[in-house]
Amino acid sequence: MLSTMQDVPLTVTRLLRHGSTIHGTSQVTTWTGEGEPQRRSYAEIGSRAAQLAHALRDDLGVDGDQRVATLMWNNAEHVEAYFAIPAMGAVLHTLNLRLPPEQLAWVVNHAADRVVLVNGSLLPLLAPLLPHLAPVEHVIVSGPGDRSLLAGAGASVQVHEYEELLAGKPESYDWPELDERQAAAMCYTSGTTGDPKGVVYSHRSIYLHAMQVNMAQSMGLTDHDTSLVVVPQFHVNAWGLPHAVFMTGVNMLMPDRFLQPAPLAEMIESERPSHAAAVPTIWQGLLAELTAKPRDISSMKQVTIGGSACPPALMEAYDKLGVQVCHAWGMTETSPLGTIARVPAGVGADEEMGYRLTQGRFPAGVEARLVGPGGEHLPWDGESAGELEVRGPWIAGAYYGGAAGEDFRPADKFSEDGWLKTGDVGVITANGYLTLTDRAKDVIKSGGEWISSVSLENELMAHPEVAEAAVVAVPDDKWGERPLATVVLKEGASADYDALRSFLAERVAKWQLPERWAIIPAVPKTSVGKFDKKVIRRQYADGELDVTNLSDQG
Ligand code: ADP
Asked: So what's the pLDDT on residue 448?
């Protein structure tokens, strides 16, 4: 028997209509660095999204599922693109502005982007690449920046001004009826190994994921809140926030290109957001800034941290400032919300921290299993560690094959029965809380035992004189691999290797203690602000690090 329910497609168009009418007075505030921030209501975003769709269709001839890319900071215009492009039936491709130029060119060509919307301040990045971007026919420039950089763009590319294109266009658009399974947006993984891989989100996956983001057990924000969206719109759709807030009317505060700790502190003080989302690196930087120069951040009740493990010391530091950190785990392939660490009912105050420091609990939309080295499924007993595999309506089932190829499912990323292999190793408790011990490729395999690089880092980062610490596996004649600890000291700190090692010795098993140590000026970061351990391993292999081996010293 089939149901008797209406089969209404779940689309980004629905979110746009809802947000721009029912929550028409909610606002996107974009930081401008000087003077008044730019303020735009969701109703205006709706009208301008319609104008943008007209410009793309009528002036530029964008049709069908053609790809329209954005090379933009987080700002109101980027939100307009987020809704206009999928709602007209085209595919939004958010470009990671921190990718190395050759990778950026690779993804534009692979996705066959016909149009690129770019912030003027990013023209120095785009302009020299244009001759290598064969599919790009149109560039639309928005915001301040030197247009003359595009002078040599060549006859094959037409350059437009965003505001000029929108001016005078109708403020409504006859949005097409779309199939909810159609592509709405795409995002490439950052290609830590091999070429980047394209994940294509459907209207349906975006819609369902947005509902999950909004649940009280996830971010649980309402139209009383303002969210400071630091996580870039090119980093897994800013974790789904722009879509989620159009459902609920949460206001957005967008930092544009002002992502340094000082302007972030300033915008928190003056715009008083109640929530913010970003990777740990941003929170570390902000903490140092607030320590050096305290600001009023009392408006911030809750921050969502994900993208890499949240060091316990960081969570505690924000607790002291009255800001509740909520830890979450996800990937480009998981839209990204995979787990989120809300404390379960019925636990005592002394147990809360234990739960908050896990990667979190699986929501109903994400099924999970742990797979052992022999392919066996492991119990959820909080002890058996294996690779995490997931499946669900907002989890990727394949990667985009490009114009020529078919979508593909590499065996190291997808199981035979279609689950996503996350490459993350961890344990799950009976009540569904995930604790990641490492990424499969970062775990340190020392004499048949596994050492978690993340737990050594967490302990080190709790040292009062340590700003950041990254631990990687390095080859060792006796043990196969041993940990190398690279440490960034806080300004003016004087801790030495013996002191750091003794500090660790009180906290981890003796056989896990690193022998090799290096003080470094900064931990190298990936394009989305995570520790880039591959770079540290290479620096070590190339002898670029000044390593002290404590075991040599007896
Ligand atoms: P990339 O693979 O290029 O880093 P993603 O942003 O998709 O791009 O990264 C997903 C990975 O980030 C996860 O597989 C996991 O290893 C890591 N990650 C994300 N959130 C967390 C977290 N809260 N704790 C630990 N690791 C995390």
From this structure: 76
Strand partners for 186: 93, 200
Q: Could you read off the pLDDT of 320-333 as tens digits, one per residue?
A: 999 999 999 999 99
Residue with the smallest CA separation from ligand 1 atom 24 is: 309
Instruction: Pick the atom of ligand 1 nearest to 305's CA.
Output: 23
Q: Is 333 a catalytic residue?
A: yes
534 included as an active-site residue:
no
Question: Residue 10: CB partners within 8 Å, gap ≥ 6?
Answer: 180, 203, 204, 207, 208
Annotated active-site residue 25? The verdict is no
Phi, psi of 244, rounded to the nearest 5 degrees: -60, -40
Q: Does ligand 1 lie within 6 Å of residue 335's CB atom?
A: no
Tell me, in angstroms, the distance from the centre of ligand 1 to residue 358's CA.
14
Measured from the CA of 360, which atom of ligand 1 is nearest? 23
The whole-number pLDDT of residue 212 equals: 98
Q: Is 0.85 surpassed by the pTM of this model?
A: yes
Domain 442-553, CATH number (from 1.10.3720.10, 3.30.300.30, 3.10.105.10, 3.90.1720.10): 3.30.300.30
pLDDT for 155 equals 76
For residue 552, how many C-alpha atoms fall within 13 Å in the half-sphere facing its CB?
5
pLDDT of residue 312: 94
- In angstroms, what is the span from residue 52 Cα to ligand 1's centroid? 33
**Dist. CA 71–CA 503, nearest whole Å:** 45
Asked if 450 is an active-site residue, the reply is yes
Whether ligand 1 lies within 6 angstroms of the CB of 434 is answered as: no
Residue that is written with structure tokens 């392939």 in the block:
333
Spell out the residues 6+ positions from residue 337 whose beta carbon is closer than 8 angstroms to its own. 209, 212, 213, 218, 239, 240, 328, 330, 363, 366, 394
Cα separation, 167 vs 44, in Å, equals 13
**Spatial distance between the Cα atoms of 68 and 86, rounded to a whole number of angstroms:** 9
Q: Where are the domains of the chain?
A: 442-553
The label of the residue with tokens 């351990």 reads: 533
Bond before 483 cis per omega within 30 degrees: no
Task: Identify the active-site residue in 450, 465, 481, 534.
Answer: 450
Cβ of 190 less than 6 Å from ligand 1: yes
Residue 14 exposure: Cα atoms within 13 Å on the Cβ side = 17
Task: Tell me, letter by letter, the H, E, C secondary structure of 1-61.
Answer: CCCCCCCCCCCHHHHHHHHHHCCCCCEEEECCCCCCCEEEEHHHHHHHHHHHHHHHHHHCC
Residues of the chain falling short of pLDDT 70? 191-193, 553-554
Q: Taking each helix axis as running N to C, give the angle between helix 42-54 and helix 76-87, from 0 to 180 degrees, rounded to the nearest 10.
A: 50
Q: Is the CB of 355 under 6 A from ligand 1?
A: no
Identify the pLDDT of residue 359. Answer: 98
Q: What is the spatial distance between Cα 207 and Cα 41, in angstroms, rounded to a whole number?
A: 21
Q: What is the DSSP string of 92-107?
A: EEE--TTS-HHHHHHH
Please tell me which residue in 77, 333, 387, 389 is annotated as part of the active site. Answer: 333
